[in-house]
Amino acid sequence: MHVSRIPMPVAASLALTGTTPPAARSIWPAWLSKVLTQAAERRQLLMMEERDLRDIGLTPSEARILAQKPLWRP
């Protein structure tokens, strides 16, 4: 199984109001998109079979630990 990035239409469709400072307008969607992508990749990691995990150099327990990390930790 190949871990791929899943397009996040929800993150892309978020519209910011004019009350948000200009700096936050560019940072917030990028951060949210990164977090949603990271969450999707971690879910895919949990669905991988042991054989596929060995191909990428992980054991099932290492994959479980990586997938259960909080989203604010890279």
TrEMBL record:
<dbReference type="Pfam" id="PF06568">
    <property type="entry name" value="YjiS-like"/>
</dbReference>
<feature type="domain" description="YjiS-like">
    <location>
        <begin position="41"/>
        <end position="64"/>
    </location>
</feature>
<dbReference type="InterPro" id="IPR009506">
    <property type="entry name" value="YjiS-like"/>
</dbReference>
<protein>
    <submittedName>
        <fullName>DUF1127 domain-containing protein</fullName>
    </submittedName>
</protein>
